[in-house]
């Protein structure tokens, strides 16, 4: 399936239209315990102890990884590009790169960004960010004829009396043919697999939530744009598929709700966990100890 934003643009009269505010899901009011985002469920899937620290005890992680920092800064630029277009402006690449530098510096100031791989240089990550923005601007944004419906839109759907799904969609739009789509931007080093936990659930869940808002719409496309690779994958989500995706998410969320034990799952991801300095089972090799060192420095300051 082709990327909705690959053809040449016709920008006259382009307008961004936002959904009306969503009515709160019916049933018991959502609480921190029954409000499940994709990130929350992924934390439980990867390490129940990290899930407990963050979502049940409300602890704050001691650091953010440089990879997360790059992703947040690049997302800020892409959102800004489409906001500018909605306002009638067509920002050039140099403005987009300036915006990236501003976002990078603003998010760096709190001193919580850690370069996990100690041999790496933070400047290399900024260069990766610039490359991703430049490629996206040239290959996608400049040729995009799709219409933006919403950016960073909060979606919320009650899946049961016990579970409410919530999440923020990077961009919701319509193709030239009028088909709704949701796209999630990925800055990871590898392209995902539609069968794995992340790729199989995240964007399809957002698409299912969009269909909840549009009772007349039969289909929503769920996509991932892999910024390092310049590629996009699409999945067609009709109402039957939306039900299957939501049922899968619900089953996993209910397992998290019913859990009474939250064991640590030590492994390579310990290096990127902001609780590794307080977890007795964390396994962090020296070459990946940038986060652990920063956490200990902040703890001692």
Distance between the termini: 53 Å
Global structural class: alpha/beta
Low-confidence stretches: 1-28
Give the topology string: H per helix, E per strand: EHHEHHEHEEEHEEHH
Q: Summarize the main sheet.
A: 6 strands, mixed
Quick recap:
By secondary structure, the chain is α/β, with parallel strands linked by helices. It has eight helices and eight strands. It has two domains: 34-144 and 266-301, no CATH class; 145-263, Trna Endonuclease, Chain: A, domain 1.
Q: Can you tag this structure with a few keywords?
A:
single chain; alpha/beta; Trna Endonuclease, Chain: A, domain 1; six-stranded mixed beta sheet; 8 strands
Describe this structure in words.
The protein has 8 helices and 8 strands; from the N terminus they run βααβααβαβββαββαα. With 301 residues, it is of the alpha/beta class. It folds into 2 domains: 34-144 and 266-301, no CATH class; 145-263, Trna Endonuclease, Chain: A, domain 1. The strands form 2 sheets. Strands 1, 4, 5, 6, 7 and 8 form a 6-stranded mixed β-sheet that branches. A hairpin with a 4-residue loop joins β7 (219-226) and β8. The model is unreliable at 1-28 (pLDDT under 50).
Which helices and strands occur, and which strands form pairs?
Blueprint: E1 35-36, H1 38-46, H2 48-56, E2 64-65, H3 66-86, H4 93-108, E3 113-114, H5 122-139, E4 147-158, E5 164-174, E6 180-186, H6 197-213, E7 219-226, E8 231-238, H7 239-258, H8 290-300
Parallel strand pairs: 1-5, 2-3, 6-7
Antiparallel strand pairs: 4-5, 5-6, 7-8
